[in-house]
Amino acid sequence: MDRTPVTHRTTTRQLGRLPSSREIEVTVHRYVGGSGPRVYVQAAQHGIELNGPAALRRLHGRLCDARLAGEVVVVPVANPLAFDARSYLTPAAYDARAPNMNRRWPGEESGSLGERFVARLWGLIEDADPDAVVDLHAGTPDMLPHVRHGADDETARRLAEAFGTPYRLAAPDDADSSAGKFRITAARAGIPAITAELANSRTVSRPAAETGADGVERVLQALDLLAGTVPTVEQTPLHDEPASVRATESGLFEPADGVAVGERLSAGEPLGTVYNPAGFESLATPTVADGGVVYSLARGTVVAGERLVALGAPS
Ligand SMILES: [Zn+2]
User: How far is ligand 1, taken at its centre, from the CA of residue 56, in Å?
Assistant: First the structure.
């Protein structure tokens, strides 16, 4: 490997134009070393997921002082419209049709504003021609921090192991519900891809940001861009297999005592109660279909059909 001191530069990429003629653009960091693999990293497709950019600021400090074999391309704020609105989704005023950026990859050049943004970003990624991609997200306190990879993708699994979160979730890549996700789109284009769900959306959390920075650094070590041995961490592998439990009624969902992320539930266990917040009567008392570890949990208002709990099967 030809590791040389990093040359860093930033550029911008135009994503699209607002009615006032204001251009929306993203900042692109390029960390270039000697010859070697190329890696693309992005964060904040969802505007409230702040620990991705916080992680990438830490990574920036580390990479600028590093010797690197290859190139790292980083977009810290992939969806500036959602970020500035402090909104999970792109505000409906700009795009009511495709508000969730992570359901629209690889985008559409002549589509809605959000679809055009994605198409321009995808163009940037195609130009970068990466050997691997990392997508940083952050969940609510009711989501277990974890890293996801395609169940059948050996390289992505290895990178997810290197990323080092305590839980690793193998997800089927052919699920219809996954259509339009960045990770799936990249995988279909032949690029090993992982998605990290860091802790605590809406706030900057020092431990979550460190987890993200360490995770990307270890991925770069696993790919030999950076020197160093990837430290072995204890990681629980889960399979995204058992059906999630969805709400059969709309109402307020209160999880049962002992139902929390990280807990292992058995088939038939009660999950809690969906009740009428105005009339107080119970509307549904869902139970676990297939046992597993809770990695995501709804808590509060739920609409019929929405996911109450997501379980991963120990693998
Ligand atoms: Zn997200």
Answer: 15
For residue 173, what pLDDT is reported? 66
pLDDT tens digits along 81-116: 999 999 999 999 999 998 999 999 999 999 999 999
3-state SS, 264-300, equals EECCCCECEEEECCCCCCEEECCECCCCEEEEEECCE
CA–centroid distance, 80 to ligand 1, in Å, is: 14
Task: Pick the closest to residue 308 from 239, 237, 250, 240 (CA basis).
Answer: 250
CA of 43 to the centre of ligand 1 (A): 8
Task: Report pTM.
Answer: 0.94
Contact 271, 256 (CB under 8 A): yes
Asked if 219 contacts 167 with a C-beta cutoff of 8 angstroms, the reply is: no
Determine contact, residues 246/306, Cβ cutoff 8 Å. Answer: yes
DSSP β-ladder status, 146-150 and 282-284: unpaired
Q: Report CA(196)–ligand 1 centroid distance (Å).
A: 9
Q: Look up residue 143 and give its amino acid.
A: M
Tell me the percentage of the chain whose pLDDT exceeds 70.
Answer: 97
